[in-house]
Each structure stands twice: as C-alpha cells, then as structure tokens.
C-alpha cells in the first residue's frame, strides 16, 4: 500500500502536496513490508496456512510491531484492497467539486490507468476466492470505501443549492461499490488466475464499464464492446 501525503495528513486538502516526515515514511515502509510478506506467504502457503509470527519473521519485524499495524493476518492481507480503494478515493477527491458524483467516480477509476495499479488487488482476489477466511476483512475494506464516497459526496451536496438527500447519496455510493465488486467477479470468471497485462487491462475496462452501466441507469443489457468482446483465456 502506497501512502500519499494526502493519506498521511489528516485534514489536509486533497489538492495540497504535504511532504511526509521521516517517521511517517518509516511507518509506511514497515506497513508495506508487512503487506508484502503476507501476500508472499499467501501465494506460497494458501489462506489460513500461516501465522502472524510467520509474517513478522518474513517482514523482519517483531510480533509486537505487527500488531501495531494490523490486528490479524487477514487484516494485513486486506490492506491490499484498502490500498487500491484508498487510491481511488484520493482520485475521487481531486475531481471538480461541481462535477456529478457518478462522473467523478468514473474519472477516478480511469485515472488509475496503469494495469499494474490493479495487479495487487487482482492477485489477492484470485488467491482468496476459494476461502471464506478473508471474506470479513474484504467486506470491511469495501464498506470503508463506500462510507468515504458517501462522505465526499455529502460534502459536495452541502455546498450546492438544491442538494440531494441522504438516501440518494447512500444509494449511489452503495451502487458504485456493488458495480466495482461485480466487475471483479466477472473478470475472475473470465480470466481466473491470469494476471497478464492484457488480463489486468480487461479488469480496468470492466471497472469503467460497470460505472458506465450505472450512469446509464442500466438501460441496456449489454456492456460496451471493448469488454464484451475482450479475449478470454484459452
């Protein structure tokens, strides 16, 4: 998980670039080392087959240090999902305040243009599909993102005459998250464990297409051509 200045500085404007202190950089590096170690163990051993101590040893830290950052092995792995979603939220916050919320969500996903940006999220998804152990932490990550979208949208609505109501904001944020999860599921059904650049590019297109379907009010039963005709694994 890459920690930006915006993420590390509570209360800072999303348009400001706030330099990180050495302490913050060290904390971010430790957090990333833990996440990387947990993901490596997941690849080699599978869900539920390694412990906090295993992760700590692989990351070169103590068990106590691990618990300064995460409460469990699942939480350490879920930070991969948190990282991607937090990056998407930061892009969302950078959109113009007078832009429709749904358009901002679409643009935020398009800003994550490099397929490698979605690679850790995609890999975690493929590695945990056959296990229920990660389900709770994963749901928490997506739910956290939904709340953040609602909060940003609420802030915009409060500054706009004739602001939309709370039901609209929550329904829209929930729909955005549901579309994101649906795109992940469709991608996995097509590509399985394929993490090639072409496969990751298709995942990005599916995420964008899901937002487009939401924007159209689901008036069509088909997705845009570049996803529906995308190559499948042989």
Helix and strand layout, with pairings?
Elements: H1 5-8, H2 22-45, H3 52-59, H4 63-69, H5 73-93, H6 101-111, H7 115-128, H8 135-158, H9 166-191, H10 197-215, H11 225-228
Helix pairs in contact: 2-3, 2-5, 5-6, 5-7, 5-8, 6-10, 7-10, 8-9, 9-10
Notable characteristics:
disordered C terminus, mainly alpha, 234 residues, 69% helix
Helix content: 55-70%
The radius of gyration computed from the alpha-carbon positions, rounded to a whole number of angstroms, is 19 Å
Largest sheet: none
Mean pLDDT: 80
Structural class: mainly alpha
Short description:
The protein has 234 residues and is an all-alpha fold. 69% of the residues lie in helices and 0% in strands. Helix 5 packs across helix 6 (101-111) and helix 7 (115-128) packs across helix 10 (197-215).
Description:
- With 234 residues, this protein is an all-alpha fold.
- It contains 11 helices and no strands.
- Helix 2 packs across helix 5, helix 5 (73-93) packs parallel to helix 8 (135-158) and helix 9 packs antiparallel against helix 10.
- Residues 1-16 and 225-234 have low confidence and may be disordered.
